[in-house]
Each structure stands twice: as C-alpha cells, then as structure tokens.
C-alpha cells in the first residue's frame, strides 16, 4: 500500500513519508451556494440488499477530490462505500464466500459520470417530431434513454427538458423504485416559451407575461418536476428564431425564478443570446445552458454571481453540427451559413474565459439528436480538454463531483469516499492519460449504481482462492426464444422452462431484438432483459429460432440407427449403408421446411404415406469459417437447439438421395429455444416420444463423428456462416426401424427432448388441412424497392427530395401555368380524401393547382432540401 493513505481514502499531508502532491486550488463548483429556499431532493433508490458486500482489490482509485489517483482497495456494503484505500480485515473479507471479490489489477476505480444537460425523451430524430409520438411509445423511449445513460457509465442526470409533462417524472420514480434500470435523475417538464419564440411547438408549454408564467411553473411543480426550463433565446437550425435574440423580459425572468424557488424547484434556461445570459445572471437562474454569445458585460456579471450559477454549454451539439452533421443532410456550408461555426468559435472563447475566472462550467452535450446521438455522452469530457483547456482531472471532477454539487448532494455523490453512494465504474484504462477511454463502452468493465452491479463479466467475480468451485456463483444463461408480438413482429425473449413464461430481451441500448442472428452478433454483453414484465408462453405465437437458411444435416451418425435403417428395406438398392462409414453423410433440408414448436405438421397426403420422425441435436454456428480444423471447431459454435428431421421414407428411397424426402414443407420443426454452448456441458441426451411412448434415447457420446469432426468436414469446402444450423444425426428407434414400421399418422403428437433445451412438440395435422407454408411465403415483403405509395424501380416517376429520398406527388386541379400551387402534406395513414371537402368548398380545383406528396416517414424536415 502506498504510504500516506488513510482508511478513509484522504491523503495524510502530515505523514513525512508521503510523496503524493498536495491538492491544487479549489474547483469552481465547490464555492456554489444555491438559493436557501432550494433543498436537496430526498429520493432514495430501492432494491439494493443491505447484506450485499463487494470488495474491489488493487484498483487505481480516482476519487474526484482532485488528489492524484492511488492504488488501494474499496469495500462496498449495501448501497454505500464503507472503506477506501486501506480496507480493515481485507484478508478475511477476500476469503468470505458471502463477499463478491473483484480483482482490480490496477484498473481505474472512479465515480460514475454525470450529465448537466439531459434529454431522456429525445430519440435522435428532428425536434419538431417529438410532439407527435404517442405517450405510450414515448415512455418506452424515455426508459430506453435512461438505460443507455447507465450503460455508458453515467449515474447522475440533470434533466434539461422533457417532450411531455410527466415523462421524466414517471421514469425517475420507476428507477427509484427499482422497477427500471437507470441513473439518478432530477426531472424536468416541458420547456416554457413565449409564442413565436419556441424551438418546437409540440414539446413547449406556452406562457405570456409574468402571471401566466407563474401559473405554468406552479403546474410543473404540481406534477413533480425538480427544475423547470425557460426557452429564452432561439436556435440557428430553426432559421426562424435567432440564437442571438432574447425573447424574455427582465420582469418575466425574475418572476419565473421567484415562483420556481418559492416552490422549491430550480430554474435552467436555454440562453444562447447575450441578453438572455445577462438576464439569467441578474435574476438568479440556477443553470444557464449554452451561453454562447456572452460578452464582457455578461462575463463580469457572471463572475460576480459565480457562487450561485452554473453554465452547461452543451458543447458537443455545436461541434457535431459544424463538423459531423453532413452525413445526415446538414452540410458544413449550411452550418456556417446559419451561424453555427461562428457560434462555436465564440462559445469556445467565452467558455475558456469563464473557466479562467472561476465560473462553474459543467459537461452535458444536449444528446438525443441524429448527429449527437444517445450513447456518446462522454465526448463532452474530451471537448472540455481539447477545446476549453481543462486538464483531464478538471474535466473528470466536473463530470463527477461537479454534477453532484448540482444535485446538491456533494456529500454523498460524485466521489469515491467512505459514506458515499456506491455509484462507480471500473475502467480498463487511465482517463487521466486518455480522456477518450470513457467513450469506449467496452472499457467500462464494471458499472455500479446504488451498490448494485449493473454491468460486469461473470469472470470479474471468480475468486477461486476464496470460494470452493461448488459454491461459486454460476452464470445464468438465456433460453432464447423467437415469437411474434401483438403487432406480428418477430421478437426475441427468454423462455423460463419452469413456469412457461417469456421475458422479452433487448439490445443493451433498449432496442428490441428481432432475430437470433442479432443475438449471435451482439454477444453476451449486448443482450439484456427488457423492462417489461414476463408474459405466458401460451399468449404468443412461437417462431423457429432460425428459419432463413437451409439446414445442414448429417445422416448415418449413430451405429444402431444405421443398422435399423439398413434392415428396414427403405435404403436405396445402390446405397451401401455400412456400420463404420469413413466420412459423414451430409445433405440439406430446405428452409421452407422449417417450422416452430407447437405448430401442426402438414402430412402431405398426396406425397407420402411413410412420414417418420428423427429427433436430433442442432448445432448453431456463431462465426464464419472455412477449412476449420477439428481441434479448433468448438470455437465456432454459438449454441444448440432441437430439430425433428421428419422424413418421407419412400421419397428418400425412390429418389436415391435425401433432399426430396427430407424437405417437404413443415418437415423441419426447430426449437423451442436456442441456448449458448457454454450452458450445456458433458453428454447431451436426445429422446423422442410419440403419443407419450418413448421411441428414441441416445446421447452425443454415441455419435460416430463428433461435433468438431462434423464442422471440420462441412467447412472443408464450404464457408460456414453465423446462424448456420447443423443437425447432428438421429439415434435408433425411428419409425421405420420397428417391425412393423410405426409411421406417423394424423393426430400423433411428436415430442423431442434434449438436455437443457426443453421439449420440441408438434402434432401431425389432418389430411384435409391447408399447407401453411405457401401463405407464409406469399406474405414475404417484395424485394423491389418501395417508395411511399407506389412501387417503382429506382424511383422512376417519383420526385426526388434530398440526396436519398423520393416522394410520389399527385398534381390535381387547374393546369393553367398561371395558377398558384398549394401543397397539401399528410402523414402515414391519411390520404387525399382528408382534404377533399376543403378543396371543394373553396373551389380550389378550378382556380389553383394543388399537389399532394406522400411522405414516407413524416420527416418533414427533409422537404427543406427539395430542389
């Protein structure tokens, strides 16, 4: 242990042997003293067991006090940090099986990050479209944004505005109850603006004059917000409300601050313009957003009141709009034309000066737009270093202890000290040497919130020296199941084989998973449980795990099965079946034969009278490979599923090959689940029952050609791909092997069980039933590009709007070249008939030419780019 470190983690400046440097001057946020009428919010997060103990050994502790990092240990008990640096009885703790121990190996242990300008309700689309999103969908968007912040290592978010009144509040409360995962949040409501001065009408609470503004603020307080936002100046991208114009009067700003503070809530303000910054400073606005056009007069006023005001510039929005928006249709030339380049340069100069004068400047980048998307929040810390001349330590302290001060909880948030909440991250790297490492989510090895582990690899907690193997915590694996949701969309969930319920799964960002192929590509860390509750398996339609590719099948891979098939009389006369084949027999089943567990099997009455079952283990490939060696083959396996290789024996015999007899529609039931390879170990047993009678029973130990050998064989001339399925062969006991044969007949229930994979169940349908495959194939979407209402090749006949968008325009009414044109625009679900009464009543069809464009996705902002 380094000398001079006390148990509480503070440096002991009186210890002669200490070589650590003393602290620099105080940080600006440490001098903040908000209005005495404002008090810290008393929210508590629930869900952390008071008995939980987590010990981090040998970590590089960056405690956000401003001191240099130092090596030591950290003990967390329940929701709080107990010891930092020197942990009492550390040897006993590391051998206690009830303590989860993480070997730090010198990685950086620091406070979770914070954002001073958070928009959870923004979802990377145009601002003016947010008001059109239904409240149900918008709630899910808000919850997904919260999860994305936590996935990015952020544990404190200061809400800057919500697109609807209560979205921030509802999700904040759900997180605090432990219902949803997410950071700590101070919630905001709809931003308050004057008419003609708003940024986007659909997300604005309008108010005119001091009295109406006070009433709106009282409404916001009643619904439970923690702060309100004033939209005091414009935004260059609107091209209608200038970023250099202030729309509020001194009287209005003063009234808003007075009313908010009387109700115990703080005030933040969208204030780019010079005059808006001055008003904010004069009248006690707590948080000024942007402050781009602050001049010397404003700077002097800010310096005088720096003990009660915070500036959060949202620097990444400006930077990205100037330098990174072109791929989204907003060129650098356009950004320069409307003034963003000048604003960025002016803002950088002003913010550097604020930093020199000791004004508190905190990070928060206005994330949630197309070129400033969720998940990239830590870019602000790099901008502070590279653009504003902060040191990496200053940037990190601002994003941790500084945000904690904004929360008015600087004594329990934002630092790694005893008594503080355990909102922490373990970083594989040194952010003081490379601040950008905090942007790499793969380097955030452990993320904790309120003492709970949100993200960590299972191997982080393997403490083989302390815990016997039998008592080590085992990883729980998902039983991945594909199903249709209520809108008919493919989704992926976890099937609990015990109580037959499905827990929906999502990507780490919160986006729903649509296929097992996405699961395979994302890997372990990319899949999480959705916030919604599990639902009964019986309430949804199951889909096969993988259905878009022919299945690779292996014949003659169990010796007893070879014997029974050879003796059945159904082997082709020239097919020399031997007990000891030298190479595997490989064939395919067409993808149209794949069907799900629980579906009926079409019996093909005019095609076969010898339908037979073959229960098999299916191997799912996880990565592409060619000419794979047997010793390396297991590395290419993602997981396993169950397959019933149904067969038409006479077709198999008469065609002297497998394909026709193996590929009839619905002859490849697959599922119900797919699991990762690590979930299954040792021998895997395959059993088949027909109407409750056990017919087949074998294990992978009976295989002639092992699974690695099969992969070597198949890949010797074929590139295998992620999502390929290899059916490994069937044990003896098939119908054709009985005397007399026991072929399947309508009404029979066939159940194939495999160790750890549940049961694949299908019933043979009535001969008079309809083949379901033809309808499924006919319902597949067209491969021809579809633009709006018309189907065209390459957009012929459509009007081009922007670089990649086409619309179908119908022109009606007068064809006179002198007639004025009126453009009617509608969204999805509407049509021209909506406007017919208006057109007819006004006689427009006689005097005007009117055009109706069909906009594909209602992104009306694209129309601004029309030629």
Explain this structure.
The chain is α/β, with parallel strands linked by helices. It folds into 5 domains: 1-112 and 403-474, Urease, subunit C, domain 1 (Roll), CATH 2.30.40.10; 113-377, TIM Barrel, CATH 3.20.20; 480-543, no CATH class; 551-778, Fumarylacetoacetase-like, C-terminal domain (Fumarylacetoacetate hydrolase, domain 2, Alpha-Beta Complex); 786-865, no CATH class. Helix content is 22%, strand content 24%. The protein is built from 20 helices and 44 strands. The strands form 10 sheets. Strands 1, 2, 3, 4, 5, 16, 17 and 18 form an 8-stranded mixed sheet that branches. The protein has a 7-stranded mixed sheet with strand order 26-25-36-30-31-33-27, covered by helices on one side. The chain is globular.
Condensed summary:
The chain is of the alpha/beta class and 867 residues long. 22% of the residues lie in helices and 24% in strands. The longest helix has 17 residues, at 135-151.
Number of strands: 44
Rg, Å, rounded:
33 Å
Oligomer: single chain
In the predicted model, the low-confidence regions spanning at least 5 consecutive residues are 1-23, 464-474, 786-794, 855-867
**CATH-scheme architecture of the largest domain:** Alpha-Beta Barrel
- pLDDT averaged over residues: 87
**Relative strand content:** 15-25%
Structural class: alpha/beta
CATH topology of the largest domain: TIM Barrel
Q: Could you estimate the helical fraction of the residues in percent?
A: 10-25%
Terminal CA distance: 69 Å
> How many domains make up the 3D coordinates?
5
Domain Amidohydrolase-related: 111-453
Region (Disordered): 1-33
Domain Fumarylacetoacetase-like C-terminal: 551-764
Family: Belongs to the FAH family.
């Amino acid at each position: 242990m380094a000398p001079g470190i006390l148990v509480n983690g503070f440096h002991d400046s009186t210890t002669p042997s200490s070589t650590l440097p003393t602290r620099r001057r105080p940080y600006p946020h440490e001098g903040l003293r908000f209005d005495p009428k404002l008090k810290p919010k008393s929210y508590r997060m629930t869900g952390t067991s008071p008995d939980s103990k987590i010990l981090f050994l040998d970590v590089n502790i960056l405690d956000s006090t401003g001191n240099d990092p130092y090596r030591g240990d950290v003990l967390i008990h329940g929701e709080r940090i107990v010891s930092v640096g020197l942990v009492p009885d550390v040897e006993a703790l590391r051998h206690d099986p009830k303590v989860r121990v993480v070997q730090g190996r010198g990685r950086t242990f620091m406070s979770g990050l914070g954002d001073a300008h958070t928009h959870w309700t923004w979802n990377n689309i145009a601002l003016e479209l947010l008001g059109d999103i239904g409240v149900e969908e918008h709630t899910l968007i808000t919850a997904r944004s919260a999860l994305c912040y936590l996935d990015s290592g952020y544990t404190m978010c200061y809400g800057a505005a919500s697109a609807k009144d209560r979205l921030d509040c509802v999700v904040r409360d759900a997180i605090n109850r432990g219902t949803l995962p997410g950071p700590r949040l101070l919630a905001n409501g709809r931003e308050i603006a004057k008419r003609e001065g708003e940024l986007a009408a659909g997300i604005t609470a309008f108010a005119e004059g001091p009295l109406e503004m006070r009433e709106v603020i009282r409404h916001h307080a009643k619904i439970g917000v923690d702060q309100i936002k004033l939209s005091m100046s414009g935004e260059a991208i609107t091209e209608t409300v200038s970023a250099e114009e202030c729309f509020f009067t001194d009287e209005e700003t003063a009234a808003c601050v007075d009313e908010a503070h009387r109700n115990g809530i703080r005030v933040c303000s969208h204030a780019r313009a010079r005059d808006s910054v001055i008003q904010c400073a004069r009248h006690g606005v707590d948080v000024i957003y942007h402050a781009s056009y602050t001049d010397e007069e404003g700077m002097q006023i800010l310096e005088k009141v720096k003990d009660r005001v915070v500036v959060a510039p949202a620097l990444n929005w400006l930077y990205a709009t100037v330098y990174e928006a072109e791929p989204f249709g907003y060129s650098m030339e356009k950004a320069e034309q409307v003034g963003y380049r000048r604003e960025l340069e002016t803002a950088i100069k002003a913010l550097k000066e604020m930093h020199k004068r000791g004004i508190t400047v905190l990070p928060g980048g206005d994330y949630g737009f197309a070129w400033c998307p969720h998940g990239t929040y830590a870019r602000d810390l790099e901008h502070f270093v590279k653009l504003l001349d902060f040191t990496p330590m200053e940037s990190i302290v601002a994003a941790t202890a500084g945000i904690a001060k904004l929360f008015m909880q600087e004594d329990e948030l934002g630092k790694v000290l005893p008594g503080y909440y355990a909102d922490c991250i373990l970083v594989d790297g040194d952010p003081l040497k490379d601040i950008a490492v905090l942007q790499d989510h793969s380097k955030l090895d452990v993320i904790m919130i309120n003492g709970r582990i949100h993200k960590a690899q299972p191997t982080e907690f393997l403490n083989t020296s302390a815990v016997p193997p039998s008592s080590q915590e085992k990883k729980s694996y998902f039983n991945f199941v594909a199903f249709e949701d209520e809108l008919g969309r493919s989704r992926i969930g976890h099937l609990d084989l015990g109580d037959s319920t499905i827990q929906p799964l999502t990507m780490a960002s919160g986006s729903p998973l649509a296929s097992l192929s996405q699961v395979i590509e994302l890997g372990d860390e990319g899949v999480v449980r959705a916030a919604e509750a599990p639902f009964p398996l019986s309430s949804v339609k199951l889909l096969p795990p993988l259905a878009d590719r022919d299945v690779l099948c292996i014949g003659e891979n169990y010796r007893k099965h070879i014997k029974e098939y050879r003796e059945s009389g159904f082997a082709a006369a020239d097919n020399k079946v031997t007990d000891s084949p030298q190479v595997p027999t490989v064939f395919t089943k067409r993808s149209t034969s794949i069907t799900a567990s629980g579906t009926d099997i079409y019996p093909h009455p005019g095609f076969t009278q010898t339908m037979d079952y073959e229960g098999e283990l299916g191997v799912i490939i996880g990565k592409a490979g060619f000419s794979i060696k047997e010793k390396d083959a297991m590395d290419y396996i993602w997981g396993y599923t169950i397959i019933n290789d149904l067969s038409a024996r006479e077709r198999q015999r008469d065609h002297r090959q497998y394909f026709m007899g193996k590929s009839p529609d619905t002859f490849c039931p697959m599922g119900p689940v797919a699991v990762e390879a690590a979930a299954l170990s040792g021998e895997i047993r395959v059993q088949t029952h027909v109407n409750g009678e056990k017919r087949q029973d074998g294990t992978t130990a009976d295989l002639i050609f092992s699974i690695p050998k099969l992969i070597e064989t198949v890949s010797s001339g074929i590139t295998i791909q992620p999502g390929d399925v290899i059916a490994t062969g069937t044990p003896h006991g098939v119908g054709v092997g009985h005397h007399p044969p026991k072929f399947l007949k309508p009404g029979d229930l066939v159940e194939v069980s495999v160790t750890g994979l549940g049961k694949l169940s299908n019933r043979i349908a009535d001969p008079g039933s309809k083949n379901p495959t033809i309808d499924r194939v006919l319902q597949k979407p067209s491969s021809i590009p579809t633009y709006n209402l018309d189907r065209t090749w390459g957009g012929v006949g459509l009007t081009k709007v922007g670089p990649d968008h086409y619309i179908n325009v119908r022109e009606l009414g007068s064809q006179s070249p002198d007639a004025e044109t009126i453009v009617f625009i509608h969204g999805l679900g509407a049509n021209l008939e909506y406007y017919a009464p208006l057109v007819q009543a006004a006689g427009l069809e006689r005097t005007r030419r009117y055009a109706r464009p069909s906009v594909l996705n209602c992104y009306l902002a694209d129309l601004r780019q029309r030629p």
